[in-house]
Amino acid sequence: MKWTMIATYAALASVVALIAMPSVHAQSSGDAVAAITKLENDGVKADLAADSSWAQKVLADDWMGCDSEGNWYTKPEMMKTISDTKNNKFSSEKLTDLKVRVYGNTAVATYKDTYEGLVRGQHRARSVASTDVWVKIGSDWKVVSSHGTTTK
């Protein structure tokens, strides 16, 4: 009889734990969406301020990105580009249609980035459909991959 009661309580505890799990997942997903939304918007502020510290902090060491002209960059190449503020600076930038989808410790952010500025010494004004793939590494969200495509 004693083992039957223990088994019953164990089964009941398992059911309660399973019922609670979706709530915990939803809360952590909401937190992740808020965190990544803030990070994406902080990136715009950093671009406008010509501040490379945001990219240094959030780009994973093995980050790869492809810009809207089809050029691939590693993190060191991107840091060098960002640091060249004479040839790379934004006069305006705005993100719209930002959507963040979370899959455990991975998230995908999609958005439209409309900007004007100097890129590699040439004036540019365009809108780009962008995707950033984020991974939670330790307690920090890091971008591991980015891609942009010019829109019409």
Task: Write up what this structure looks like.
With 152 residues, this protein is of the alpha+beta class. Helices cover 41% and strands 44% of the residues. It is built from 3 helices and 6 strands, in the order H-H-E-E-H-E-E-E-E. It has helices at 2-49, 53-58, 75-83, and strands spanning 59-66, 72-74, 89-103, 106-119, 122-137, 140-150. It has a 6-stranded mixed sheet. Strand 4 (106-119) and strand 5 (122-137) form a beta hairpin. It is globular and about 40 Å long. Mean pLDDT is 85; it is low at 1-27.
How do the strands and helices of this protein lay out in sequence?
Blueprint: H1 2-49, H2 53-58, E1 59-66, E2 72-74, H3 75-83, E3 89-103, E4 106-119, E5 122-137, E6 140-150
Main sheet makeup: 6 strands, mixed
**DSSP summary: helix tally:** 3
Mean pLDDT equals: 85
Strand residues, percent: 35-45%
Q: Give the strand order, joined by hyphens, for the main sheet.
A: 2-1-6-5-4-3
Structural class: alpha+beta
- What is the β-strand count? 6
| Shape call | globular
What is the compact description of this entry?
The chain has 152 residues and is of the alpha+beta class.
Q: What attributes characterize this protein structure?
A:
single chain; 152 residues; alpha+beta; 6-stranded mixed beta sheet; 3 helices; 6 strands; disordered N terminus
